[in-house]
From TrEMBL:
<protein>
    <submittedName>
        <fullName>Uncharacterized protein</fullName>
    </submittedName>
</protein>
Amino acid sequence: MDGLSWPSKFQLDEIREKVVEMSGGDAKNVKFVVSPYRICPLGAHIDHQGGTVSAMTIDKGILLGFVPSGDSQVLLQSKQFKGQVHFRVDEVQLPNYANGSSESCQTKNSSKSQEECNWGSYARGALYALQKKGNCLTKGIIGFICGSDGLDSSGLSSSAAVGIAYLMAFQSANNLSISPEENIEYDRLIENEYLGLKNGILDQSAILLSSYGCLTCMNCKTKDHRLIQAPNIYRGQKSDMKNAYKILLAFSGLKQALTTNPGYNRRVAECQEAARVLLQASHNEVAEPVLSCVEPEVYETYKAQLEPNLAKRAEHYFSENKRVVEGLEAWASGNLKEFGRLVSESGLSSIKNYECGCEPLIQLYEILRKGPGVYGARFSGAGFRGCCLAFVDSDLALEAASFVEDEYRKLQPKLANQINQDKLVIICDAGDCARII
C-alpha cells in the first residue's frame, strides 16, 4: 500500500459530506468503496476466448461513499450525472437489455436524458447478480458515487469499476462475505447477462485481484491468477522499479458506450467461428468453440482453412497469448524496454489483426510510440473510443506528455478542444485492488 496517493483525504471528505446530507446520519458511519480503473498492457481482446491476460490498476477510479439505508430502499446520487436513482433491494431484477430501461430515475426537472436515466443501471445490475446467486438482501444503501474527473467513457473499464463498487457496497450493508474471485463472477453477470455485453473477465479480475507494484496475470480459461512482482533491482542498481516508470493516458475526445458499438460483439463472434472451423478441421467437435480450446499446433496446421477475417482474429489471439508470456518474463526481470516493445506490438496487432480502433485512436497510438522516454503504447479498452496508454520513463514523463498533447492537437484540433486542457494527457501511477475503507 506504500506509495498510494489515491484517494486523497479531500476527496473522501467531499463525498462524506454528500452522503451525510443525503442520509441525515453520522459522518463516522460513512464507508467508501475504492474501485480503481484498470489498464491491460498485454492480453488485449483474448479474455473472452479464455486466453491469458495481464493487467494492473491505476491511481484513479470510482469512489462510492455509502451508509446502509436502514430498510430496503436504495437512494443514489452521482457527481457526474444529474438526478437520483431510487429502487428497493426486494424488487426482482430482470436483464436491462431485454426488458428495456427499467430505471426509476428522478431528476429535478421533468426532462430526463437517456444518459441520466441509465447511469444507475449498474446498481440494479449488481442487485440482479446478487439475486441470481441466491443472496437475499434486506438492506439498501444511501450512496454518492463519483469517478475521477475527465476519465469517464475512456477505455479504462470504468463500467466494471462501477459495477464492483455497487456489489461491494450492497455486500457490506448486508454483512455478506464474498471473496474477490466470487465477485469476478458477480460482475460478469452484470456485464454479460444484465447489460448484454459479451466481454470476458479481464476487467473485473484486474480491479479485484491487482496489488500495488505487481502485474496481474490471469488465465481466463481456468480462472487461475498470479501476481508478478516488480524486481527491486532496476538498471543494475538497488532501486524500486515501481518508481522507474509512469503511465501516460492520452485521450482522444471520442466518447461512445461500448454496448452501443456492434463491432465488439461481432469480433467476439468471429473468434468463436474461427475456433469452430479449426476444431472441426482437427476432428474435435466436442470442445467449446473458443480459441483457448485450440492447441497452437492445430492452429498452425489448419489456419489456411480460415477465411481472411477469421484468420486475422485467430492470428491476434495466438500471437497475443505468446506476447503475454514473454511480457511477464520481461516484467519479472525488470526489462521495461522489452516489456514496452511487446506492448507496442500488441497495439499493432489490435489494429491489423483484430481490426479495432479508429483514426483518432490510431493517431494517438502512433504519436505515443514516438514520445520521449516511451517504452511502449497501445489502445486502452476496445479502441473504438476513449484513450491510449503508454509506459514511460519517470524522468521523461512530463516531456512525453507535452509532446503527445502538441502532436495530437495538430492532427485532431476539434476533438482535442473538447477535452479540458489539463486532461488531454494524464500521468498516472500504478494502483491497488478494489477495497472498502
